[in-house]
Amino acid sequence: MKPELKTLIDEAELKETVAALAAEICEDYRDKDPLLVGLLKGSFVFMADLIRQLDIPVEVDFMAATSYVGRESTGELVVLKGLNESVHDRHVLIVEDIIDTGLTLHQIYDRLSTEGPASIEICTLIDKPARRQVEVPVKYVGREIPDLFIVGYGIDFDQKYRWLPYVGTID
Ligand code: IMP
Ligand code: MG
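That is the input. Now the predicted structure with magnesium ion docked in place:
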């Protein structure tokens, strides 16, 4: 059973979106030697393209976490892979593929905020604001989309479709 894919954001649009985000980030982080923190796995393709559009030096690290949503609305954060670098005194930019409910990102943001960064902001390629359950302070948004399930450009359905060079919707 092969699900039908429909292109939502094609390669050219993705390139433009990433270039626009990179231009803003360059402007804001010049001379700040920022630490870009990618959230695995979904952000790896976006991160790779984003850093190659930046014309400022940056450092990159990755973490993987999930939150178990139990009786409490925010659930408990489970860190599967922590950072290699310390965020203390660093200008941290969290790089996310897509923000949906915001539950996981909200907790990652809070956790890293307690570790003494010089500053901390969030950049997401895609935002689905209609689905938000908790407020997350997102500074850089590539594209807002309606409540659709998407895949491609690093984003998966059941670990599949990350390799697609475009973003598509799945039925
Ligand atoms: P949330 O914001 O904590 O609900 O979770 C966001 C994460 O859920 C994203 O980083 C993705 O890994 C995943 N996700 C959310 N929406 C989609 C989608 O449309 N397609 C595939 N994964 C999604
Ligand atoms: Mg993700």
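The two ends are 12 Å apart (CA to CA).
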